[in-house]
Amino acid sequence: MQKIFLFLIVALGSLAPSATPLFAQGIGLIKGHIYSPDREGLSFATIAVQGERRGCTANASGAYELSLPIGHHTLIISSLGYKKQIVEITLSDSTTYTRDFVLEGESLQLRSVEVVARGVGRLRHTAFNAVSINTQDFLSTNKNLGDALSRAPGVKVRETGGVGSDMNVTLDGFTGRHVKVFIDGIPQEGVGRSFSLNNIPVSYAERIEVYRGVVPVDFGADAIGGVINIVTSRKHRPWYLDASYSYGSFQTHRSTLALGRTLENGLSFELNAFQNYSKNNYWIDTPVEDLINGGIDRTKVEHVRRFHDTYHNEAIIGKLGFIRKPWASRLLFGLKYTHVYKDIQAGVRQDIVFGERHRYGYNLIPSLEYAKDLLLDGRMDIQLTAGYTRGSYTLVDTASYRYNWRGERTERNSPGEQGYGITRSNEDNWTASASIKYRPQDRYTLILHHNFTSFSRRSTSLVARRASTSPIPDQEIKNITGLSAQYRPDSVWNATLFGKYYAQHITGAIATDPLQGQFTKTTRSDHYLGYGLAVSAQLLRPLQAKISYEKAYRLPTSTEIFGDTDLETGKIGLRPESSHNVNLNLSWAQRLQESMLLIEAGLIWRDTRDYIQRNVSSMGGGNYGGVYVNYGKVLTKGINLSLRFDYDKWLSLGGSYTLMDVRDNQKHSQGGQLINAGYGLRMPNLPYSFGGIDVTLRRKHLLGKGTALSFTYDNQYVKSFTFYSEGLGINARDYSIPTQLSHNLTLTLGLSNNRYALSLECRNLTDERLYDNYSLQKAGRALYAKLRIHLGY
User: Fold this and answer.
1) Is 254:201 a contact under the CB 8 Å cutoff?
2) Which pTM was predicted?
3) Of 147, 201, 274, 641, which has the fewest Cβ atoms less than 10 A away?
4) DSSP run (H or E) holding 483
């Protein structure tokens, strides 16, 4: 690792120009920002001096600095997707001039880093395979970030039930913890169950970026499936207020509030708050246990209502600090508080019914963010973040009854529906990151990023008169360091070479007797080196190609190692996954008079070793839980296809389709003696063929001046897949999730130039039976109404 870093630093550091005094005799300095029309900084916009070999490149925030001799100069300011601007400027003395530029956008592109049709776009300036979902189109709807994310090609958002249910993301054949989630580049591991993507309203984010397969070092992530980055707004408007309330089926209430103000002196304040509440008492179709004899007639399906699945969560997020100061581009203090309560209706399979188990808890998260751009003559940017999460969750399981889906109950021989107890888990998570970007010349960028995370948990049993705390805490420490070198000679092509160093230290307890009554402390440390290359080329004006490769590692998470004190059983001896990842993507973006066309096709190949698989296993007494194992070799091959088309701002349509072939590639059993019975078969519980279509019609001023009416239809398709191995009864109903096609409708009316909006939404219009995980059925037809008010800038 040290050799690779040294090579990159020496090779590109030698390209740095010799230092010159910033305020030498006869030299002036001009600095400022390059903005889009909506006052967002244009990443990597360029300034060239006509007739000279001088110029500079703006940083990721659009800030620039340029030293020029005293006198008259002609500047050419440009950015991909924006019209060039030619400006005459005269420097009269050796001082500092401040000048901002606003570039007029071409209709082909809405952001400097995106080619966008309506809603979904390409991150063009990066060599990595990435897409962006614009959440602004969903602000007046009832959708959450998980709903918006499902629009991205190759993405399937999977839930175990209704509002507040467990959620994971399948991305290009990888699922759950293979895909890491960030908010503004800060990892979200350990932030709590009440802050998952299906609980966060779309108003919290400006866009969602999805990096598929190969991941830039900027995130400091140990991901082999990809990264999802939630990007919040950094427009820092003078003032604004955005509030909404919605009500819908299954006694569902949602509300949001966002307000903020930025003063001329740079003082900035933001507040976001939201809540979700639902009884989740929707109907399902399932065999019902006979409590007298304990049998289940699986040929007899009953239509029953969920009766113990109430969920509510609340969150308040505040930020206070300064922006655009001489000593800091950003200095923001944050404080986040979240609370959650959840009834537990079912176990990992729908056969398991609970009537009184529940969980509640909170998270308190202070944070700090500091950034300073344009150091060292405008060639270096630094960013530092730090955060601490204190989480406390209590699981209550003391019922003395056994329930079935009719709500009937019978007395148990001993208390506890899954395992008698009141268990409080206190979790402490620390995160810190440091990022340095250095541009020795305008064509080169070096990025050094380090990410530190620490997890610690102590569990306390509260059922006895005297609380009993586990003597050996669960602890995990991760350090991930990345160094990348980017070469961007022009707007036609660019390449990024990178290396990553992974380190993990684990401390936990291992049982020393068969009854698991005695434990001993054990520790383990692992170190790994990854590397990769990403290249992007503009083959023709509308056609772009991207190819990337990475030798990636994914370190096991705290849940996989230690469990979750409930339905998940950890395994401290899990080995990290390693994978050779290759992506090839072609995108065609073309403006045709009043329309915009974006077509994409992507090929994916992954060769994964020590694949960590979650299985469902019997825990005795008719109970089941999740267990984790390393599964040898897995080979993934697949294709993504997507299309977006806009016409004259009133019609938008698009769709995507994903076909992923994820196969067991372990020819022999782990011992190496027997042929693996699953060799060549698809891996279980992974959707492999899915897609969706959406169509939106918009009309302005149809119901009067300042009104806007829109109607959206979208659907989601998933082909049947098995949740156990294909060799164990692929045709049996108990082992497969059926083919599904769901339909959704949304009607939105905006008034007074969208300051006020009313939205009506119908989900699962045809009341299909929908499943994502094992036999856990999701909600049927649901209706929602939402009122939104937006004031200010």
Assistant:
1) yes
2) 0.81
3) 641
4) strand 474-487
